[in-house]
Every structure is written in structure tokens, then in C-alpha cells.
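Worked example 2:
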Amino acid sequence: MERRVVPVERDCEARLVPTGDQISIPAGSFVTLTQTLGGTYTIVHHGNMARIAGSDGDALGFEPEVLEFPEEDSTPSVKHIWFALRSVFDPEIPVNIADLGLIYNVELKGTTAHIRMTLTAPGCGMGPVLVAEVEERVKQAPGINEVDIDLVFEPPWSRNMMTEEAQLELGLF
């Protein structure tokens, strides 16, 4: 996506990247849109990078993104959980969290998804934001009623955990 300046049509909340601090962006402001992936929006406002939740996308003129699962049926499946996880993107890196290697394990017990995940850095202020987005996205998977997330830092994340495709995307090969 090419960066572009867009008007903010109504007051909306955002989270500063990487601290996660909440800010309010007033209607009538102009922001630079830098990333629109996974139904969320990364913007620059007054020189600060921030993430706007998909539910506030209308403030930027966007319709909310709805996940459409392949082979739609109401039976919970690990395949659908991974599909949902691949729709969550790091706000600074245009790669989904699954391909970044942030998801260590996925288990399904009945209608509950159990996810063991990490962050690129232990002190990342966006951690709670990403965890909440994982929960929200995975709950959209057919038949999933509950999401249990275990945020861990062992083993520590490294770029070697990324898929080859993600490394190519980021020019690391």
C-alpha cells in the first residue's frame, strides 16, 4: 500500500506504537495512512505512529473487515483458528503474526481455542492490543466460543522463527 493522507471523519481512539498508550484523534484531523492490514489501520498523527482498531475504520472512511472462512461450517477447527490468526498483523511490520512466528501453539478443546504466543519484544506496549485482537479475530471462527491466550517469552522470539515467505517479504533473505 502506498502511504496517503486521509481526513478523520469523526473523533476516534488509537493506540500509540510501540507503547500502546491510548490517544484521541479529533474529527477534522489529517493522518497519514501507512498500513491497512487485517482490518486495522496504522497511521501517523503529529509525527507519532498509532494503530486504529477495525471497529473505528469508519472514522477513516473504511467499512469494517469481516472474516470469511474457507469451507464455512459451524464445526470448530484448528484450520479456522490459523486462518483467523493470519488476519492479525503487527502494526509496524506488514506480516501477519502467524508468519512472523509469534504463534507457538494452537489447540482446540471443544469450542475453546488455546493459543500460546509471544511478542517480538517482551516490553512491547502493543502486547495487550495484539492479544485482544487475537481473541476478537479467533472468536469469529466458526464454533469458537472462548479463546484462552497464554502470552509467553520463552523461548524468546527471533527472526529465525519467521516463515521463509515473511523473510522474503521483509527482504531478510
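The chain has three helices and nine strands. The first strand starts at residue 4 and ends at 7.
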